[in-house]
Amino acid sequence: MKLDHLEGLEPAERNNAEILRTVVILVVVMIIGGWLIIQQYIKHADEQHPDRPPISAEIKQNFSFINQDGKVVSIDDLVGKVWFTSPIALSQLDERNVSLEVMQRLAKDYADNDKVMFVSISVEGEDLGMTQAKLKAAADQLNIDSSKWWIITSKNTTDMHKYGKNQLRQGFVEKVKAADASEKWTFPDMVTMVDSERHIRQQYAFDDALIAQSSAEDIVAANPEKAKIDGADYYLKAIELLESRLRKNLDYVLNESQPGKLANDETKQ
């Protein structure tokens, strides 16, 4: 069958630049939309319990590690502490890690509080060449005191990743090919807060905050008038706002007599 009405037509020219631009726009919209959904969820939680950070999970299993001093430490050793944890790639310390920056600021501001601890879990175990000497070198580089902050690893990388995902809810850690064909570690740039009884009291996705803030900054750079839009600071200060919330929640948890109950409360909220 001859399709006369198609005669003389030519295939549309593929505009790769325009396609790429459309994809980038869609990705940015999805990321900012995701950030907005997360913030709406937090707002809803605030309306239910305006002050209390929710208990999202409980760490039910112990796990042993080696810290930068070569000492065997475990999650059980942290009972009674309020602690923060996030993954760390010691081979990629030159890359920005917002969670690490936030934890460094917290460690400085809460240096005199013996109840607060910090834990950075290496994404590489001893079976992948991580050693106590490398942990110590990183701790020295970051000016970390082992009495307040552990940099830790374990013998088996796979088991350590499973524990981080299933117990600490830190998400997936994996190695991927970079643009230059080299391999690099990817993992959520996220801080998890754990209370004195091993309850996870929210997680703080600074990777989402960074993407939302960077995207907003790019938009404002191209069109400065956008900065005047009502609610623009919600995105332009995404990292600062998330850290502020984390600090507020930390102060609340430090004053609890038990999870969800302030020291001067008579009833559990």
From TrEMBL:
<protein>
    <submittedName>
        <fullName>Uncharacterized protein</fullName>
    </submittedName>
</protein>
<keyword id="KW-1133">Transmembrane helix</keyword>
<feature type="transmembrane region" description="Helical">
    <location>
        <begin position="20"/>
        <end position="38"/>
    </location>
</feature>
<keyword id="KW-0472">Membrane</keyword>
<keyword id="KW-0812">Transmembrane</keyword>
<dbReference type="InterPro" id="IPR036249">
    <property type="entry name" value="Thioredoxin-like_sf"/>
</dbReference>
